[in-house]
Design goal:
The protein is mainly alpha-helical and about 190 residues long. The chain has 2 domains: about 1-60; about 65-190, no CATH class. It contains 9 helices and no strands. The chain has helices at about 1-15, 15-20, 20-30, 35-60, 70-90, 95-100, 105-120, 125-150, 160-185. The radius of gyration is 18 Å and the shape is globular. Keywords: Membrane, Transmembrane, Transmembrane helix. It is a multi-pass membrane protein. Pfam families: NnrU. This is Protein NrnU.
């Protein structure tokens, strides 16, 4: 569990610099240079992510059950994960109304994904992993929206065709991930 927690500290800490120390980040980028800063950011992120994966795998070997989720929670989690994939896709498809409305769909997608996994899993390692990502995403979303308001950022209205494409791609990716990829990567088949 210690590796998982340390990995989360590093990974989410790097991704929280803009939330808690935006001035320091700006100064560090100016001092180090754009490329060096991005390189250090990437290396720390990858190290943290690697520790999260390794620590989570180790923690899953000796699970500590906190509660047993009802079967219905898995169905709710599946629906929330479809929404999370749609939000993730909305971050990349230009001109969709979802991004125009929520402004930061990827972070909202992380919140939705983490919440879904908290619903469907009741052991300590899952609570730590997904609880940390949910807490980070809530803080980041608030920070991003506050920054948008302070800078007067306006998002252009989306088109129906881009929004429909976003939803379609999100649903297809969610299905592919749930039916095949999740089992390959995580060893757990949500529907099998």
């Amino acid at each position: 569990m210690a590796y998982l927690i340390f990995g989360l500290f590093v990974f989410l800490g790097v991704h929280s610099v803009r939330i808690f120390a935006d001035d320091w980040r700006t100064q560090a980028k100016a001092r180090m240079g754009e490329q060096a800063f991005k390189g250090a950011y990437s290396v720390l992120s990858l190290m943290g992510f690697g520790l999260v994966i390794w620590g989570f795998g180790m923690a899953r070997e000796t699970p500590v059950l906190l509660w047993l989720p009802p079967v219905g929670m898995r169905h709710a989690a599946a629906l929330f994960n479809v929404l999370a994939f749609v939000l993730l896709v909305a971050a990349y498809v230009p001109g969709n109304a979802i991004k125009a409305r929520v402004h930061h769909p990827m972070v909202l997608g992380v919140k939705t994904w983490a919440f879904a996994h908290l619903l469907a899993n009741g052991n300590l390692a899952h609570m730590v992993l997904f609880g940390a990502f949910l807490a980070w995403a809530v803080l980041d979303f608030i920070s991003l929206r506050r920054r948008d308001r302070a800078q007067g950022i306006q998002y252009p209205a989306g088109t129906l065709s881009a929004t429909m494409l976003t939803v379609l791609l999100g649903v297809v990716l969610a299905a592919v991930f749930a039916l095949w990829v999740h089992g390959l990567l995580m060893g757990v088949k949500p529907f099998g």
